[in-house]
Amino acid sequence: MEKITKKEEHVSNLLRGADKNPHKDFIRQLRKEGVKKIELSGLIDGKFYHTVFRDNGLCCEPLVLFEDRTFIGVECSDDDQYHFIEYKGEKYVFKSGKLSGHKMLINTVSNQGIAMFLDGESPQKEELFNDIQCTLSTYYDFLDLDELKLCTCYIIHSYLLNIIGRTIYLLLDGRKGTGKTTLQFLMSKLLYHGSFCSKVTMAALCRKTHQFQSSVGIDEFDKYSEADRLNLLGILNSGFTKGGVYELMSDRDRNRVDYYYTFSTKNFSTNKNNLDVTLRNRCLTINTIGGKKKTSDLYGVDDGRDTWFQMLTNRIFCYCLLNGRAIMADINNVSEEFSRDAARSRRADIVSIIAGIELHFTGRKELRDYIVKKDEVSDSVVSQKDTERIFYVLEYLLSLFFSDLSVTSIKIENKNLLDCLNSKLLEDIPGSIPATSTSVGKLIINNNLINGTDSSDYDRVPGKGGARYLIKRERLFDVIERCGDSRLKRKVLDLKEKSSQLHVQENLL
Q: Which CATH class for the 116-293+305-380 domain?
């Protein structure tokens, strides 16, 4: 009681001082609690909410839906500078300022989905999880069931970002033509405010995350300029946790710097060996290998398909808003288990999100062990030693194609690669650990020089390291393009030019 009395006395003295001050009105205004700011979704007064955009034809009207199936209209300030809501006598201003009246080609809940939520409709969790998996596998041939489940949990988590407080990035790693773009485009049709971007400008990308917290699919990451890649890495690193902000020079005024909120989930395709280690640790990897199973067309005109994607988006939204805190409880339970585990993964937060969502929808936690084991394999593969070794292998393979410009593929035995590699290591790096037949095989498969699941890419031969690989020239070019080594890239250009000249000469003859 003594502490409370002293506090009241202190406040009383401050107020008396303010009464004598000529600036007392301004002082009282400053002592009031500041304006409360909110994101597009989160918690207000302990209730989970989402901002949705009712489609009125030419523009959109924002509304805030609460988990108890109530809603509030969003208002605009008198000076038309920001949007806000009034809830229980309190004013809440959106952090992004003024909400856009246009959806900017993002995937979002429709008017029918809003009506469905307010009318009390909600799918069964097992049925919803299965429908997402079936839809994904209809249009993309996954390597295994675990990767399919991982992508399903990844999609669901995008609707819960602002109560989770952090996100997951999905890295698609694979050679050209293995379906990376298809998978990104497919997921954009189900992700929260999903948007597929191909060579988007940094300013446009930032506006999508700032205005809509858009789940962005970034295609052809490797083809950005060096300056854009630096900005992109800044956006990705800042957008991993709630409240992340990135400053970007204005594209209209070079003397002005704009700031953008960047917190949202993102997926992109690139060679993971080229990524900054900090960013790589924030990613889960999907290894695209090129499907063997015939899948349905994702790009042709099909009203029924598009209607299904919209309906499924609506159902995911409704379930997550109604049950978001229950899903979060399962995520926290898995996270606590990791905290008690002596062998806790360094990426426990990321694994907990995926495993917690899987636990909620299926009652199992199989993805936890799958991700941890995959991390262990990845850690053993990605090293400076392998970076040096793959350079020598790529250089040697290029020299074979230079020796015969007319061939488009070559067969080479593991032992020949091994001898060449160890010779180079001994010459350039004295005292280095020699390569083995097994390590050469892993190097070839892990860098996508062959498809390890396609028996036509390799066969067995007698002797030590008895394997023979079919190396295709175009695949080699693609691996070199993704590895980012400028010396090898110049050699590829030289080889292409000489091959083209040979082709012209043959036609003349």
A: alpha beta
